[in-house]
Amino acid sequence: MMHVSFLSFLLSACGDVENKNDDGNIDNEDTGEVKYYPPGCFIVDGGDGYALLNDAIEVADEGSTITMLGCDSSHEELVVIQKSISIEGPGADMMTLSGPVNETTITIEGASNVSISGLNIDTTRTGIEIIGSDNVTLSDLTFSTGAYGIKSDGSTLSIDNSSFSFLQFGGMELKNSTTTLSNLIFDQNISSGIFIDGGTTTASNLTVNNTLPTDMDIPEDGYGIIVDGGGDLVVQEATFDANLFAGLYVVRGNLTLNDALISNSALASIFSDPNSGSVTLENVNAVDNLNYG
Q1: Prediction pTM value
Q2: Most exposed residue of 4, 158, 273, 286, measured as fewest CB within 10 angstroms of its CB?
Q3: d(CA 44, CA 47)
């Protein structure tokens, strides 16, 4: 009798056990219940497909790859990622992932080794928000609606071959993050193309043009890049054109800029607050900026 009780104790201590079955759903071995996932176009590791991206993420093992086969050209879903996963879209010109109204489209939180590529991200708030995550790779994406394209807080990430336009608060906000940027285009965003608040940002081959002020009647911003919070920014090869106030504004932090053209700003090519930090320039051309070179 004691043997049976002890065995029962062991079974109850182990809790419910879930296994993925052959049809891609999940069986609970203790209750006999099956968690059903509607089939669809989000394919996990070349196998089963799911109608919702969140379902595909839940079923996927750490390190899995989710691809898209036969999806509609647009899909609406609030997506949350908290594991190592790769999401590969068919191309930003072929599929738009949208978040519900007043919601961030994709949130990556507390995860490592996440990659997302090949999508147009549509939002009324933020396209992708990254919180406390490491080794996040974003590539071949477009952002053209909402408040921000990308926001990062306390994360390590790289962003490549992507474009940001018509964003109402700015193309990108990087807070206390370590970021590598390459082959990016920012055009006709409001307030700033990139806002850096602390952390370290290394960038190459940037195009930052036509940044507009928040208030056209009383313009107080409209900067290509803002560096604040003691952040460090190193840029190699960049073009800044027609950003209303300045190509770059160093509020508090350090800037190193090499091989750049800054033109057609109303205030200055580069504006730096007193005692803001260091500004180091090499092979930088300032052309047709209204007040100061």
Answers
A1: 0.88
A2: 4
A3: 6
